[in-house]
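Researcher: Structure for this, please.
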Amino acid sequence: MKRFLPQSLPSWILLILISGLLTMQIATLSIVSRDRAENNNMLELFRLSERAYTLAKVLYAAPEPERRRLATALSNSASPISVTDEPAVTTPIAADDSLAELEDVLVARLSEFGVTDARISRVSARTNNRGGGDADAADPDAGVIERQLSNLAEDFSQSDGLAASIRFNDGQWLNLVTPLAPVNPVFTAQTLPLFGSVAAVIIAMSIWAMRRLTAPYRALERAVKRIGDDVKSPPLPEHGSSEYKSAARAVNAMQTRLREYVADREQLAAALAHDLRTPLTRFRLRLELLRNSPVRQSLMQDLSDIEAISRSVIDFATYEIAEEEPEKIDFWSLVDSVADNYPQVDLAKNGQTPRSLICIGRPIALRRCVTNLLDNAVTYGGKAHVSLAQSGHDILLVIRDEGPGIPQDRLDEVFQPFRRVENSRNRQTGGFGLGLTIARNIARRSGGDIKLANDVKGGLRVELTIPLMKT
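Model: Predicted structure, C-alpha coordinate format:
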Protein backbone atom coordinates (compact mmCIF):
# COMPACT_ATOMS: atom_id res chain seq x y z
CA MET A 1 0.00 0.00 0.00
CA LYS A 2 2.89 2.32 0.81
CA ARG A 3 4.29 2.18 -2.71
CA PHE A 4 1.06 3.68 -4.11
CA LEU A 5 1.31 6.72 -1.82
CA PRO A 6 3.16 9.87 -2.92
CA GLN A 7 6.84 10.00 -2.06
CA SER A 8 7.41 13.77 -2.27
CA LEU A 9 6.01 16.81 -0.47
CA PRO A 10 4.56 18.45 -3.65
CA SER A 11 2.75 15.20 -4.49
CA TRP A 12 1.29 15.04 -0.99
CA ILE A 13 0.15 18.68 -1.19
CA LEU A 14 -1.46 18.02 -4.59
CA LEU A 15 -3.17 14.88 -3.28
CA ILE A 16 -4.55 16.72 -0.24
CA LEU A 17 -5.63 19.72 -2.32
CA ILE A 18 -7.36 17.69 -5.03
CA SER A 19 -8.96 15.34 -2.49
CA GLY A 20 -10.25 18.34 -0.53
CA LEU A 21 -11.65 19.98 -3.66
CA LEU A 22 -13.37 16.79 -4.81
CA THR A 23 -14.76 16.13 -1.33
CA MET A 24 -16.08 19.69 -1.09
CA GLN A 25 -17.60 19.45 -4.58
CA ILE A 26 -19.32 16.15 -3.84
CA ALA A 27 -20.59 17.41 -0.47
CA THR A 28 -21.88 20.63 -2.09
CA LEU A 29 -23.67 18.76 -4.87
CA SER A 30 -25.17 16.35 -2.31
CA ILE A 31 -26.49 19.25 -0.22
CA VAL A 32 -27.87 20.96 -3.33
CA SER A 33 -29.54 17.73 -4.46
CA ARG A 34 -31.14 17.22 -1.03
CA ASP A 35 -32.34 20.84 -0.86
CA ARG A 36 -33.79 20.56 -4.37
CA ALA A 37 -35.74 17.45 -3.34
CA GLU A 38 -37.09 19.14 -0.19
CA ASN A 39 -38.02 22.35 -1.99
CA ASN A 40 -39.65 20.42 -4.83
CA ASN A 41 -41.73 18.41 -2.36
CA MET A 42 -42.97 21.60 -0.68
CA LEU A 43 -43.73 23.14 -4.07
CA GLU A 44 -45.80 20.12 -5.08
CA LEU A 45 -47.80 20.28 -1.85
CA PHE A 46 -48.44 23.96 -2.58
CA ARG A 47 -49.59 23.17 -6.14
CA LEU A 48 -51.96 20.49 -4.86
CA SER A 49 -53.41 22.89 -2.27
CA GLU A 50 -53.99 25.65 -4.82
CA ARG A 51 -55.51 23.27 -7.37
CA ALA A 52 -57.79 21.70 -4.78
CA TYR A 53 -58.93 25.18 -3.66
CA THR A 54 -59.77 26.26 -7.22
CA LEU A 55 -61.64 23.05 -8.10
CA ALA A 56 -63.56 22.98 -4.82
CA LYS A 57 -64.61 26.59 -5.33
CA VAL A 58 -65.83 25.94 -8.89
CA LEU A 59 -67.54 22.61 -8.27
CA TYR A 60 -69.21 23.59 -4.97
CA ALA A 61 -71.08 26.42 -6.70
CA ALA A 62 -72.35 24.05 -9.42
CA PRO A 63 -75.54 22.00 -8.98
CA GLU A 64 -74.99 18.46 -7.95
CA PRO A 65 -75.74 16.91 -11.39
CA GLU A 66 -73.41 19.39 -13.13
CA ARG A 67 -70.39 18.51 -11.02
CA ARG A 68 -69.61 15.32 -12.90
CA ARG A 69 -69.82 17.07 -16.27
CA LEU A 70 -67.57 19.92 -15.15
CA ALA A 71 -65.07 17.49 -13.62
CA THR A 72 -64.91 15.56 -16.89
CA ALA A 73 -64.46 18.79 -18.85
CA LEU A 74 -61.63 19.97 -16.60
CA SER A 75 -59.86 16.60 -16.60
CA ASN A 76 -56.91 15.68 -18.85
CA SER A 77 -54.60 12.72 -19.23
CA ALA A 78 -51.85 14.18 -17.06
CA SER A 79 -54.16 15.55 -14.32
CA PRO A 80 -57.37 13.49 -14.15
CA ILE A 81 -60.39 14.86 -12.20
CA SER A 82 -63.57 13.02 -11.24
CA VAL A 83 -66.60 13.37 -8.95
CA THR A 84 -67.79 10.08 -7.47
CA ASP A 85 -69.79 8.73 -4.58
CA GLU A 86 -66.75 6.85 -3.24
CA PRO A 87 -63.26 8.30 -2.61
CA ALA A 88 -60.42 7.32 -4.93
CA VAL A 89 -58.06 7.46 -1.91
CA THR A 90 -59.47 4.64 0.13
CA THR A 91 -57.24 4.85 3.20
CA PRO A 92 -58.09 7.56 5.71
CA ILE A 93 -54.56 7.47 7.21
CA ALA A 94 -51.89 9.58 5.53
CA ALA A 95 -48.60 7.99 4.57
CA ASP A 96 -46.44 10.64 6.32
CA ASP A 97 -46.72 13.66 8.56
CA SER A 98 -46.50 16.20 5.75
CA LEU A 99 -49.51 14.69 3.95
CA ALA A 100 -51.47 14.43 7.21
CA GLU A 101 -50.82 18.10 7.96
CA LEU A 102 -51.84 19.07 4.43
CA GLU A 103 -55.11 17.18 4.86
CA ASP A 104 -55.90 19.29 7.93
CA VAL A 105 -54.92 22.46 6.07
CA LEU A 106 -57.24 21.60 3.16
CA VAL A 107 -60.20 20.83 5.42
CA ALA A 108 -59.75 24.10 7.29
CA ARG A 109 -59.19 26.14 4.12
CA LEU A 110 -62.02 24.58 2.11
CA SER A 111 -64.62 24.44 4.85
CA GLU A 112 -66.32 27.52 3.36
CA PHE A 113 -67.04 25.40 0.24
CA GLY A 114 -68.68 22.63 2.23
CA VAL A 115 -65.62 20.37 2.48
CA THR A 116 -65.75 18.08 5.49
CA ASP A 117 -62.92 15.62 4.81
CA ALA A 118 -59.73 15.29 2.77
CA ARG A 119 -57.51 12.34 1.97
CA ILE A 120 -54.12 12.52 0.23
CA SER A 121 -51.77 9.77 -0.92
CA ARG A 122 -48.81 9.36 -3.20
CA VAL A 123 -49.26 7.36 -6.41
CA SER A 124 -46.53 5.76 -8.49
CA ALA A 125 -45.90 6.47 -12.14
CA ARG A 126 -47.48 3.17 -13.22
CA THR A 127 -50.67 3.96 -11.29
CA ASN A 128 -50.68 7.53 -12.55
CA ASN A 129 -49.86 6.67 -16.19
CA ARG A 130 -52.83 7.51 -18.36
CA GLY A 131 -51.16 6.97 -21.73
CA GLY A 132 -49.64 10.39 -22.23
CA GLY A 133 -48.40 11.64 -25.55
CA ASP A 134 -45.61 9.79 -27.29
CA ALA A 135 -42.67 12.14 -27.63
CA ASP A 136 -40.97 9.85 -30.10
CA ALA A 137 -43.93 10.19 -32.43
CA ALA A 138 -43.72 13.98 -32.49
CA ASP A 139 -43.54 15.78 -35.77
CA PRO A 140 -39.88 15.81 -36.93
CA ASP A 141 -40.51 19.26 -38.43
CA ALA A 142 -41.62 20.68 -35.07
CA GLY A 143 -39.72 23.60 -33.58
CA VAL A 144 -37.53 23.57 -30.51
CA ILE A 145 -40.21 24.84 -28.15
CA GLU A 146 -42.77 22.34 -29.46
CA ARG A 147 -40.37 19.44 -29.00
CA GLN A 148 -39.46 20.56 -25.50
CA LEU A 149 -43.15 20.91 -24.55
CA SER A 150 -43.83 17.44 -25.96
CA ASN A 151 -40.95 15.95 -24.01
CA LEU A 152 -42.08 17.71 -20.84
CA ALA A 153 -45.64 16.40 -21.28
CA GLU A 154 -44.25 12.90 -21.70
CA ASP A 155 -42.19 13.31 -18.51
CA PHE A 156 -45.24 14.52 -16.56
CA SER A 157 -47.35 11.60 -17.82
CA GLN A 158 -44.73 9.13 -16.55
CA SER A 159 -43.96 10.82 -13.24
CA ASP A 160 -45.27 10.05 -9.77
CA GLY A 161 -48.16 12.13 -8.44
CA LEU A 162 -50.24 13.22 -5.47
CA ALA A 163 -53.83 11.91 -5.37
CA ALA A 164 -56.43 13.74 -3.30
CA SER A 165 -60.02 12.88 -2.43
CA ILE A 166 -62.10 15.78 -1.01
CA ARG A 167 -65.59 15.17 0.48
CA PHE A 168 -68.35 17.72 0.14
CA ASN A 169 -71.06 17.99 2.80
CA ASP A 170 -73.54 16.38 0.38
CA GLY A 171 -71.52 13.15 0.35
CA GLN A 172 -69.85 13.46 -3.06
CA TRP A 173 -66.08 13.11 -3.43
CA LEU A 174 -63.85 15.25 -5.63
CA ASN A 175 -60.93 13.08 -6.81
CA LEU A 176 -57.90 14.67 -8.46
CA VAL A 177 -54.32 13.71 -9.28
CA THR A 178 -51.51 16.26 -9.53
CA PRO A 179 -48.40 14.91 -11.27
CA LEU A 180 -45.10 15.72 -9.62
CA ALA A 181 -42.74 17.84 -11.67
CA PRO A 182 -39.80 15.67 -12.80
CA VAL A 183 -36.57 16.57 -11.00
CA ASN A 184 -33.50 15.92 -13.06
CA PRO A 185 -30.58 14.41 -11.13
CA VAL A 186 -27.51 16.53 -10.48
CA PHE A 187 -25.31 14.16 -12.49
CA THR A 188 -26.63 13.59 -15.99
CA ALA A 189 -25.14 12.89 -19.38
CA GLN A 190 -25.28 16.64 -20.03
CA THR A 191 -23.78 17.82 -16.69
CA LEU A 192 -21.06 15.19 -16.23
CA PRO A 193 -18.83 16.58 -19.03
CA LEU A 194 -19.18 20.04 -17.49
CA PHE A 195 -18.26 18.85 -14.00
CA GLY A 196 -15.42 16.75 -15.45
CA SER A 197 -14.07 19.70 -17.42
CA VAL A 198 -14.14 21.98 -14.38
CA ALA A 199 -12.42 19.34 -12.24
CA ALA A 200 -9.78 18.76 -14.95
CA VAL A 201 -9.11 22.51 -15.21
CA ILE A 202 -8.76 22.80 -11.41
CA ILE A 203 -6.42 19.79 -11.25
CA ALA A 204 -4.32 21.08 -14.17
CA MET A 205 -4.06 24.53 -12.60
CA SER A 206 -3.15 23.00 -9.25
CA ILE A 207 -0.40 20.90 -10.82
CA TRP A 208 0.92 23.92 -12.76
CA ALA A 209 0.87 26.12 -9.66
CA MET A 210 2.56 23.44 -7.54
CA ARG A 211 5.27 22.83 -10.10
CA ARG A 212 5.86 26.57 -10.43
CA LEU A 213 5.94 26.94 -6.65
CA THR A 214 8.38 24.06 -6.13
CA ALA A 215 10.60 24.77 -9.18
CA PRO A 216 13.10 26.79 -7.11
CA TYR A 217 13.38 23.96 -4.62
CA ARG A 218 14.06 21.44 -7.38
CA ALA A 219 16.77 23.81 -8.62
CA LEU A 220 18.05 23.96 -5.04
CA GLU A 221 18.18 20.17 -4.88
CA ARG A 222 20.13 19.97 -8.16
CA ALA A 223 22.50 22.69 -6.96
CA VAL A 224 23.21 20.88 -3.70
CA LYS A 225 23.96 17.68 -5.62
CA ARG A 226 26.21 19.66 -7.96
CA ILE A 227 28.08 21.09 -4.97
CA GLY A 228 28.62 17.55 -3.73
CA ASP A 229 30.28 16.71 -7.05
CA ASP A 230 32.08 20.03 -7.54
CA VAL A 231 32.45 22.45 -4.64
CA LYS A 232 33.63 25.11 -7.11
CA SER A 233 30.34 25.17 -9.02
CA PRO A 234 28.60 28.57 -9.45
CA PRO A 235 26.54 29.81 -6.47
CA LEU A 236 22.74 29.70 -6.45
CA PRO A 237 20.78 32.76 -7.62
CA GLU A 238 19.12 34.38 -4.61
CA HIS A 239 15.74 35.44 -6.01
CA GLY A 240 12.20 34.12 -5.60
CA SER A 241 10.13 33.56 -2.46
CA SER A 242 11.53 34.61 0.91
CA GLU A 243 11.82 30.97 2.02
CA TYR A 244 13.76 30.03 -1.10
CA LYS A 245 16.06 33.06 -0.80
CA SER A 246 16.85 32.12 2.80
CA ALA A 247 17.63 28.54 1.76
CA ALA A 248 19.74 29.71 -1.20
CA ARG A 249 21.72 32.08 1.03
CA ALA A 250 22.36 29.26 3.51
CA VAL A 251 23.53 26.92 0.73
CA ASN A 252 25.79 29.61 -0.77
CA ALA A 253 27.27 30.32 2.67
CA MET A 254 27.88 26.60 3.16
CA GLN A 255 29.53 26.38 -0.27
CA THR A 256 31.77 29.34 0.55
CA ARG A 257 32.89 27.70 3.79
CA LEU A 258 33.52 24.44 1.93
CA ARG A 259 35.61 26.27 -0.64
CA GLU A 260 37.63 27.89 2.13
CA TYR A 261 38.12 24.49 3.76
CA VAL A 262 39.26 22.93 0.48
CA ALA A 263 41.59 25.88 -0.14
CA ASP A 264 43.07 25.46 3.33
CA ARG A 265 43.53 21.75 2.68
CA GLU A 266 45.24 22.45 -0.65
CA GLN A 267 47.57 24.99 0.97
CA LEU A 268 48.32 22.55 3.78
CA ALA A 269 49.12 19.80 1.29
CA ALA A 270 51.34 22.09 -0.78
CA ALA A 271 53.17 23.27 2.34
CA LEU A 272 53.55 19.68 3.53
CA ALA A 273 54.97 18.63 0.17
CA HIS A 274 57.43 21.53 0.20
CA ASP A 275 58.49 21.21 3.82
CA LEU A 276 58.94 17.42 3.81
CA ARG A 277 60.91 17.23 0.59
CA THR A 278 64.00 18.99 1.94
CA PRO A 279 64.45 17.12 5.27
CA LEU A 280 63.74 13.78 3.60
CA THR A 281 66.38 14.50 0.99
CA ARG A 282 68.93 15.43 3.68
CA PHE A 283 68.00 12.33 5.61
CA ARG A 284 68.60 10.12 2.57
CA LEU A 285 71.99 11.80 1.83
CA ARG A 286 73.15 11.26 5.38
CA LEU A 287 72.09 7.63 5.25
CA GLU A 288 74.25 7.18 2.17
CA LEU A 289 77.24 8.10 4.34
CA LEU A 290 76.48 5.20 6.66
CA ARG A 291 77.66 2.57 4.22
CA ASN A 292 78.83 0.06 6.77
CA SER A 293 76.24 0.76 9.48
CA PRO A 294 74.14 -2.29 10.41
CA VAL A 295 70.99 -0.13 10.78
CA ARG A 296 71.33 1.55 7.39
CA GLN A 297 69.07 -0.87 5.55
CA SER A 298 66.33 -0.60 8.18
CA LEU A 299 66.52 3.18 8.18
CA MET A 300 66.38 3.27 4.37
CA GLN A 301 63.26 1.09 4.45
CA ASP A 302 61.66 3.33 7.06
CA LEU A 303 62.58 6.38 4.99
CA SER A 304 60.98 4.80 1.91
CA ASP A 305 57.82 4.13 3.91
CA ILE A 306 57.73 7.75 5.11
CA GLU A 307 58.15 9.02 1.57
CA ALA A 308 55.41 6.67 0.30
CA ILE A 309 53.06 7.76 3.06
CA SER A 310 53.72 11.44 2.41
CA ARG A 311 53.20 10.99 -1.33
CA SER A 312 49.91 9.15 -0.73
CA VAL A 313 48.63 11.78 1.67
CA ILE A 314 49.66 14.60 -0.66
CA ASP A 315 48.04 12.84 -3.63
CA PHE A 316 44.83 12.37 -1.69
CA ALA A 317 44.77 15.98 -0.50
CA THR A 318 45.63 17.50 -3.89
CA TYR A 319 43.93 15.20 -6.39
CA GLU A 320 41.52 18.00 -7.44
CA ILE A 321 43.82 21.01 -7.09
CA ALA A 322 44.53 21.20 -10.82
CA GLU A 323 42.11 23.56 -12.55
CA GLU A 324 41.45 21.22 -15.46
CA GLU A 325 38.71 22.13 -17.90
CA PRO A 326 36.31 19.34 -18.98
CA GLU A 327 36.62 18.28 -22.61
CA LYS A 328 35.53 15.52 -25.01
CA ILE A 329 37.38 12.27 -24.31
CA ASP A 330 37.57 9.07 -26.33
CA PHE A 331 37.29 6.77 -23.34
CA TRP A 332 38.35 3.68 -25.30
CA SER A 333 41.62 5.32 -26.32
CA LEU A 334 42.21 6.52 -22.75
CA VAL A 335 41.75 3.04 -21.27
CA ASP A 336 43.81 1.46 -24.06
CA SER A 337 46.73 3.84 -23.46
CA VAL A 338 46.67 3.19 -19.69
CA ALA A 339 46.40 -0.59 -20.14
CA ASP A 340 49.48 -0.59 -22.40
CA ASN A 341 51.57 0.25 -19.33
CA TYR A 342 50.57 -3.01 -17.60
CA PRO A 343 51.69 -6.33 -19.17
CA GLN A 344 49.38 -8.09 -16.70
CA VAL A 345 46.28 -6.38 -18.10
CA ASP A 346 44.20 -8.16 -20.74
CA LEU A 347 41.97 -5.63 -22.58
CA ALA A 348 39.23 -7.19 -24.67
CA LYS A 349 39.62 -5.82 -28.20
CA ASN A 350 37.04 -7.75 -30.19
CA GLY A 351 35.26 -6.14 -33.11
CA GLN A 352 31.99 -5.91 -31.18
CA THR A 353 33.36 -3.40 -28.67
CA PRO A 354 32.14 0.13 -29.56
CA ARG A 355 34.98 2.49 -30.44
CA SER A 356 32.95 5.70 -30.20
CA LEU A 357 32.56 5.85 -26.41
CA ILE A 358 32.83 9.61 -26.00
CA CYS A 359 32.37 11.35 -22.65
CA ILE A 360 32.85 14.81 -21.19
CA GLY A 361 35.40 14.98 -18.37
CA ARG A 362 38.80 16.00 -17.15
CA PRO A 363 41.32 13.82 -19.02
CA ILE A 364 44.10 13.85 -16.41
CA ALA A 365 41.70 13.05 -13.59
CA LEU A 366 39.97 10.23 -15.52
CA ARG A 367 43.36 8.80 -16.54
CA ARG A 368 44.33 8.81 -12.87
CA CYS A 369 41.06 7.10 -11.94
CA VAL A 370 41.59 4.28 -14.47
CA THR A 371 45.25 3.99 -13.50
CA ASN A 372 44.39 3.58 -9.82
CA LEU A 373 41.84 0.86 -10.62
CA LEU A 374 44.23 -1.09 -12.88
CA ASP A 375 47.12 -0.65 -10.45
CA ASN A 376 44.91 -1.92 -7.63
CA ALA A 377 43.83 -4.96 -9.70
CA VAL A 378 47.39 -5.85 -10.78
CA THR A 379 48.88 -5.32 -7.31
CA TYR A 380 46.37 -7.41 -5.40
CA GLY A 381 45.06 -9.74 -8.08
CA GLY A 382 48.17 -10.48 -10.12
CA LYS A 383 46.35 -10.20 -13.45
CA ALA A 384 43.42 -8.11 -14.67
CA HIS A 385 40.83 -8.71 -17.40
CA VAL A 386 39.32 -5.49 -18.74
CA SER A 387 36.27 -4.95 -20.94
CA LEU A 388 34.61 -1.76 -22.14
CA ALA A 389 31.03 -1.38 -23.40
CA GLN A 390 28.02 0.89 -23.52
CA SER A 391 25.33 0.35 -20.87
CA GLY A 392 22.26 2.50 -21.54
CA HIS A 393 23.40 6.12 -21.37
CA ASP A 394 26.68 5.24 -19.62
CA ILE A 395 30.12 3.90 -20.47
CA LEU A 396 30.80 0.73 -18.50
CA LEU A 397 34.38 -0.29 -17.69
CA VAL A 398 34.66 -3.73 -16.04
CA ILE A 399 37.92 -4.85 -14.40
CA ARG A 400 38.18 -8.38 -13.00
CA ASP A 401 41.34 -9.52 -11.20
CA GLU A 402 42.45 -13.00 -10.18
CA GLY A 403 42.99 -12.23 -6.52
CA PRO A 404 41.23 -13.58 -3.41
CA GLY A 405 38.51 -10.91 -3.51
CA ILE A 406 37.15 -8.97 -0.54
CA PRO A 407 34.75 -10.19 2.18
CA GLN A 408 31.21 -9.19 1.27
CA ASP A 409 30.68 -7.15 4.42
CA ARG A 410 33.79 -5.05 3.72
CA LEU A 411 33.19 -4.05 0.10
CA ASP A 412 32.12 -0.52 1.04
CA GLU A 413 34.74 -0.17 3.75
CA VAL A 414 37.69 -0.24 1.32
CA PHE A 415 36.53 3.08 -0.19
CA GLN A 416 37.31 4.85 3.08
CA PRO A 417 40.76 6.51 3.32
CA PHE A 418 43.55 4.34 4.75
CA ARG A 419 41.32 1.26 4.94
CA ARG A 420 42.74 -2.06 3.74
CA VAL A 421 41.73 -5.70 3.94
CA GLU A 422 44.63 -7.04 5.98
CA ASN A 423 44.73 -10.54 4.44
CA SER A 424 45.78 -9.27 1.03
CA ARG A 425 46.02 -5.49 1.07
CA ASN A 426 48.86 -4.59 3.42
CA ARG A 427 51.98 -2.46 3.30
CA GLN A 428 54.14 -5.30 2.06
CA THR A 429 51.98 -5.91 -1.00
CA GLY A 430 50.35 -2.56 -1.67
CA GLY A 431 49.77 1.07 -0.85
CA PHE A 432 48.05 2.85 1.99
CA GLY A 433 44.35 2.51 1.10
CA LEU A 434 43.87 5.74 -0.87
CA GLY A 435 43.75 4.56 -4.51
CA LEU A 436 40.11 3.46 -4.50
CA THR A 437 39.08 6.54 -2.50
CA ILE A 438 40.62 8.89 -5.05
CA ALA A 439 39.25 6.87 -7.99
CA ARG A 440 35.68 6.94 -6.71
CA ASN A 441 35.87 10.67 -5.91
CA ILE A 442 36.99 11.35 -9.49
CA ALA A 443 34.27 9.08 -10.92
CA ARG A 444 31.52 10.74 -8.90
CA ARG A 445 32.76 14.21 -9.78
CA SER A 446 32.47 13.14 -13.43
CA GLY A 447 28.84 12.08 -12.90
CA GLY A 448 29.58 8.35 -12.61
CA ASP A 449 30.39 5.87 -9.86
CA ILE A 450 32.43 2.80 -8.94
CA LYS A 451 30.97 -0.45 -7.62
CA LEU A 452 32.78 -3.50 -6.22
CA ALA A 453 31.61 -7.10 -6.20
CA ASN A 454 33.14 -10.54 -5.85
CA ASP A 455 33.01 -12.16 -9.28
CA VAL A 456 31.43 -15.60 -9.62
CA LYS A 457 34.59 -16.80 -11.41
CA GLY A 458 36.76 -15.62 -8.55
CA GLY A 459 38.57 -12.39 -7.85
CA LEU A 460 37.26 -8.87 -7.44
CA ARG A 461 35.00 -7.26 -10.04
CA VAL A 462 35.19 -3.47 -10.39
CA GLU A 463 32.59 -1.57 -12.44
CA LEU A 464 33.27 2.05 -13.42
CA THR A 465 30.40 3.99 -15.05
CA ILE A 466 30.86 7.34 -16.79
CA PRO A 467 27.97 9.19 -18.54
CA LEU A 468 28.12 9.21 -22.34
CA MET A 469 28.27 12.58 -24.04
CA LYS A 470 24.78 13.72 -25.03
CA THR A 471 24.38 14.13 -28.76
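Researcher: Any notable elements?
Model: The chain has eleven helices and eleven strands. The chain has three domains: 2-135+143-186, 242-318, 327-467.
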